[in-house]
Amino acid sequence: MSVRTLVVDDSLTMQALIRRTLSVDPAIEVVGTAASAEEARAKIKELDPDVVTLDIEMPGMNGLDFLERLMRLRPTPVVMLSTLTSDGAEASIAALELGAFECFDKLALRRENEAIRLPALVRAASGTRRRLAPLPPKSEPLDGDYRPRDNALIAVGASTGGVEALIELLTGFPANCPPTVIVQHMPASFTASFAARLDRLCRPSVEEARAGAPLQVGKVYLAPGGDRHLEVAGSGGKRHCRLLQGPKVSGHQPSVDTLFHSVARCAGSDAVGALLTGMGADGAEGMLAMRTTGSVTIGQDEATSVVYGMPAVAHRIGAVVQQLPLRRIAPRLLQECRA
């Protein structure tokens, strides 16, 4: 059965390019195109597509406003098309927060070796179940009596759907949370904006990880996108961030597996880990190493994952101590680290 796709872009040239890119995959059928939000709304009602590709920049109602209304009134998997530059990062992060499945670089459509990712994203998006009911209440941060035990460390990995998931997770953290290190798969131009967004929303301080930055209570460190991996180095109360160049691991750079393996080596039973929503298997083997060295490991459950990929593989290989719905993961991580 084909993935029925609607292409929404105000440029006829771009519509044709997207259609041509998707047509190489026999499992995808472009059932229509639209050049504005108004036209897209009518086409969605008429055609009931499985997936929508949506341009962020459109005349009249922009893509973000349309996405917000679509997710509220008729939840549909959406792949946003944007220029993934620093200028477009804020808008792209906002789209992911609103529930877009993924953002794809428009410029990559003209690079054959990169354009092939778009059909794969559309196919993957078609298999997701967008929320048809209101979100559950956000996790409430623990009371002011919370104090992390000495040397406690939290490590988190996420991919597709991770922007929403990490916002939900970290808004449940108190200001004096244990040092927390995170790998979220996203382009290099996104991570600074995402860290700044999290810092505004959350009680702890959130920043892009810097080489040599000491891991401190009340701080969250997000791996920078690009060509480096984030590791934890040192021991006890003198752990710090290490950024290493090198090939992709488990298909990614930075890699959750690389982070988790370093946590297993440096923290062992001091650490707790969480593997959240995401395509693929990155993080599963590293989480198994964490569990083997005494870490408590948590996987996001299928019902609350946008893509039940990474946590599913971790569960299948025995890397996960317990699977939990997203809203229960922050309380569990914090409880495991409590003094």
Automatic annotation (TrEMBL):
UniProt entry keywords in alphabetical sequence: Chemotaxis, Cytoplasm, Hydrolase, Phosphoprotein
Domain Response regulatory: 4-121
Reaction equations catalysed: L-glutaminyl-[protein] + H2O = L-glutamyl-[protein] + NH4(+); [protein]-L-glutamate 5-O-methyl ester + H2O = L-glutamyl-[protein] + methanol + H(+)
Enzyme Commission no: 3.1.1.61, 3.5.1.44
Active site per the UniProt annotation: 159, 185, 282
SMART domains: REC
InterPro entries (alphabetical): CheB-like, CheB_C, CheY-like_superfamily, Sig_transdc_resp-reg_Me-estase, Sig_transdc_resp-reg_receiver
PTM comment, free text: Phosphorylated by CheA. Phosphorylation of the N-terminal regulatory domain activates the methylesterase activity.
Enzyme class: hydrolase
Residue numbers bearing the 4-aspartylphosphate modification: 55
UniProt cross-references to Pfam families, sorted A to Z: CheB_methylest, Response_reg
Keyword Signal: no
Domain CheB-type methylesterase residues, every copy: 141-339
Localization of this protein: Cytoplasm
Protein family (similarity comment): Belongs to the CheB family.
NCBIfam families listed in its UniProt record: PRK00742.1
Function, as annotated: Involved in chemotaxis. Part of a chemotaxis signal transduction system that modulates chemotaxis in response to various stimuli. Catalyzes the demethylation of specific methylglutamate residues introduced into the chemoreceptors (methyl-accepting chemotaxis proteins or MCP) by CheR. Also mediates the irreversible deamidation of specific glutamine residues to glutamic acid.
PANTHER family: PROTEIN-GLUTAMATE METHYLESTERASE/PROTEIN-GLUTAMINE GLUTAMINASE, PROTEIN-GLUTAMATE METHYLESTERASE_PROTEIN-GLUTAMINE GLUTAMINASE
Domain notes: Contains a C-terminal catalytic domain, and an N-terminal region which modulates catalytic activity.
Name by which UniProt lists this protein: Protein-glutamate methylesterase/protein-glutamine glutaminase
Organism (species): Sphingomonas citri
